[in-house]
Amino acid sequence: MRTITKDIQILIDGNPQGFRLTKPDAFSGVEILRLLLRLQDQWDEDERNKGTVTAVPRTWNEVTVPDVTPPGRSPTVLDLITSLSSDELRSVMTSCLNHTEVLLPAGPNPVMTGSEWGYPELKHDTVSCMKLVLEEIAWTLEGFFGGGGRNAPSADATTSP
User: Of 2, 44, 81, 95, which is most buried with the most CB atoms under 10 A?
Assistant: First the structure.
């Protein structure tokens, strides 16, 4: 059975607060991956144009992606954020926060439902929202690339008669 929820804690105003992440459906997960790979392609092209690239492996948010990277520099969260349009950023953040619940004594409560805040305490807490979004992205894509990076062979597809 596949695990689709994960409980985490983040500090809010110095106090630990529990949250439950739920993996998004496959289509939403692929959309997140597409945006990240677009960033990678933009990064590679920018660095090739500078003529300063060296082949080195790197780890980015627990997803190993061996490819071309300038020495000592990898794409950062800031690179991801600045590469997205306002609509794309809002879409990614909303999607991630729609798959997150705050764990309260009275029971789990959605952080967002659609475009509405279900837990308004986070509405103006940029740092906590970004932590939750990054946790959701990293967990959603965890294991996607496996140990061999995006060039690793995939398992053979099988069909039944």
Answer: 95
